[in-house]
Amino acid sequence: MGKITKCPWGSFEVLLEAPDYKVKRIVVEPGGCLSLQLHHFRSEHWFVVAGAGEAIVEDGKISLHPGSAVDIPEKVKHRVQNYTTENLVIIEIQKGVYCGDDDIERFEDRYGRV
Predict the structure, then answer these.
(1) What is the per-residue burial (b if ≥16 Cβ within 10 Å, else e) of 36-58?
(2) Is the pTM of this model over 0.90?
(3) CATH number for the domain including 104?
(4) Which residues form the domain of 73?
(5) What would the pLDDT profile of 27-83 be if each residue is shown by its tens digit?
(6) Which residue from 40, 41, 9 is spatially nearest to 26, judged by alpha carbons?
(7) Looking at the domain assignment, is residue 48 inside a domain?
(8) Total domain count, the chain
């Protein structure tokens, strides 16, 4: 497996990577919340394997639980939040012409990242 990268909201690990796709295991810790963001060059597919939480996609809210799946097209604002006391674990599949971690445009972030 890949290196685990710590973030203010939890951690992620790259499981598989190629020029036009990437697969990550994302762990959102209790109370954690990713920034409200979008990606210009990739879409994402999230599959929840453990825990519970909520996804914001555009103006809609989606309840997350094991077995849930969410598709996020390019250039669509989104975020994920964990309101529970257990880790939320998501397998994320990114697909696009560029899947670098710098393809993030943040609109709101409780941890002060820009």
Answers:
(1) ebbbeebebebebeebbbbbbbe
(2) yes
(3) 2.60.120.10
(4) 4-108
(5) 999 999 999 999 999 999 999 999 999 999 998 999 999 999 999 999 999 999 999
(6) 9
(7) yes
(8) 1
C-alpha pair distances (Å), 17 with each of 11, 48, 90, 107: 17, 20, 17, 27
Q: Give the pLDDT confidence score for residue 113 in this predicted structure.
A: 83
Q: Which of 113, 106, 37 is nearest to 72 (CA)?
A: 37
* pLDDT at residue 1, as a whole number: 60
Q: What letter represents residue 85's amino acid?
A: T
Q: Who's near 40: CB < 8 A, 6+ residues apart?
A: 74, 75, 103, 105
Asked if residue 114 is part of any domain, the answer here is no
Domain presence at residue 52 = yes
